[in-house]
Write a structure and sequence with these properties.
By secondary structure, the protein is α+β, with helices and mostly antiparallel strands. It folds into two domains: about 220 residues, Peptide Methionine Sulfoxide Reductase, Chain A (2-Layer Sandwich), CATH 3.30.1060; about 140 residues, Metal Binding Protein, Guanine Nucleotide Exchange Factor, Chain A (Beta Complex), CATH 2.170.150.20. About 25% of the residues lie in helices and about 20% in strands. The protein has eleven helices and 17 strands. The strands form four sheets. A six-stranded mixed β-sheet has the order 7-6-1-3-2-8, covered by helices on one side. It has a six-stranded antiparallel β-sheet with strand order 11-12-16-15-14-13.
Length: about 375
């Protein structure tokens, strides 16, 4: 069973022996489904976990736990977990191609496993637990190759991906008691998942707010590309920050404070120009996107360039808000809400103390001439 500790092993094997979920191999391919249904066969360690994660993706129709890649017909769990059959613990995902692309399926899958470990998966060691993508046709292979190359180039996982691409042949469904294990034996599943270290690893890679504020791998790749194309700004040292900021500016940007509404420098500023980070100088917002929100703080429908903005979940109050920070200065700027006007529907509610206003007529002299096009 799962190689965690002897006590956990004893706990998990104390299960009724189920009959085989199917007696024959499932030779699934896109041709055997309705036109809008497609199939992906994936391996990311424990299929209890990968099945649970993939079933949460909107557009997924069904997920079956099983085995693929080996030489033994209709293998049992005991045979596969011994590592002697050549099979990998896998899942087969049926999804609606009208709602999901194959890349989007892979995106969700790779964000819920460790695709950099070819020696197993978290506490489960051995080739039978290694990550793999079983491609059903040339198109799936090409999509997977290109997508994983982009992920590597962006350096999202900090280590090269070692997820194997294998031509799909057969998929054997696992015993019935393994199907939807996270529903049938929720307490045992939760204990195993926590002990495996899977979620702790994913929190390190994607942040502990990844469930409340998820970002796809495609979004992260695009952000990395955008950052590489923008000017890099430098965050001053702690001593320099303390020396240049007022007490209020320091408390807002460094200690996440909020200034008073209707009693701050820019809430009613109507002059043309841009607002830059008080700490780093990176360009944040333009007067062309500023509007009167009635909140008493300067409000904008969008940033000048999203590459200079970082968002994260903020749970300091009784509900979750989305905090906004500058990328290079790491300054706390304010929050963004979904109650703004067209065209974005967003309200970037910022602290004046976190920003410095550069009038349009001074932008060229201060090095922001590239943004004068905003006022044409």
């Amino acid at each position: 069973m799962k190689r965690i500790t002897i006590s956990l092993l004893a706990l998990l094997v104390a299960l009724p022996v189920g009959l085989s979920f199917f007696s024959q191999a499932s030779n699934h391919s896109s041709a055997s489904h309705a036109e809008h249904e497609q199939v992906a066969t994936l391996a990311g360690g424990c299929f209890w976990c990968t099945e649970s994660d993939m079933e949460k993706l909107d557009g997924v129709i069904d997920v079956v736990s099983g085995y693929s890649g080996g030489t033994v017909d209709n293998p049992t769990y005991k045979q596969v977990s011994s590592g002697t059959t050549g099979h990998i613990e896998s899942i087969q995902v049926t999804y609606d191609s009208d709602k999901l692309s194959y890349e989007q399926v892979l995106d969700h899958f790779l964000r819920h496993i460790d695709p950099t470990d070819d020696g197993g998966s978290f506490v489960d060691r051995g080739n039978q637990y290694r990550p793999a993508i079983f491609y059903h046709d040339t198109q799936q292979k090409q999509v997977a190759e290109r997508f994983m190359q982009e992920i590597d180039q962006a350096g999202i996982f900090h280590k090269p991906l070692k997820t194997e691409l294998i031509a799909f042949k057969k998929f054997w469904p696992a015993e019935e008691y393994h199907q939807d294990y996270y529903k049938k034996s929720s307490l045992r599943y939760k204990y195993y998942r926590y002990a495996s270290g899977r979620d702790q690893y994913l929190d390190q890679i994607f942040g502990d707010d990844r469930e409340d504020n998820p970002k796809t791998l495609r979004q992260l790749i695009d952000e990395k590309r955008a950052i590489s194309e923008v000017k890099v700004y430098t965050r001053p040292s702690e001593d320099q920050i303390r020396a240049k900021l007022t007490d209020l500016q320091y408390r807002v940007t460094q200690e996440d404070a909020t200034e008073r509404a209707f009693n701050n420098e820019y809430w009613d500023n109507k002059a043309e120009g841009i607002y830059v980070d008080i700490v780093s100088g990176e360009p944040l917002f333009s007067s062309t996107d500023k509007y009167k929100s009635g909140t008493g703080w300067p409000s904008f429908t969008q940033p000048i360039d999203p590459a200079y903005i970082v968002t994260k979940s903020d749970n300091t109050l009784f509900y979750t808000r989305t905090e906004v920070r500058s990328r290079f200065g790491r300054s706390h700027l304010g929050h963004v809400f979904e109650d703004g006007p067209a065209p974005t529907g967003l309200r970037y509610c910022m602290n004046s103390a976190a920003m410095r206003f550069v009038p349009k007529e001074e932008m060229q002299a201060q090095g922001y001439g590239a943004y004068l096009k905003l006022f044409q």
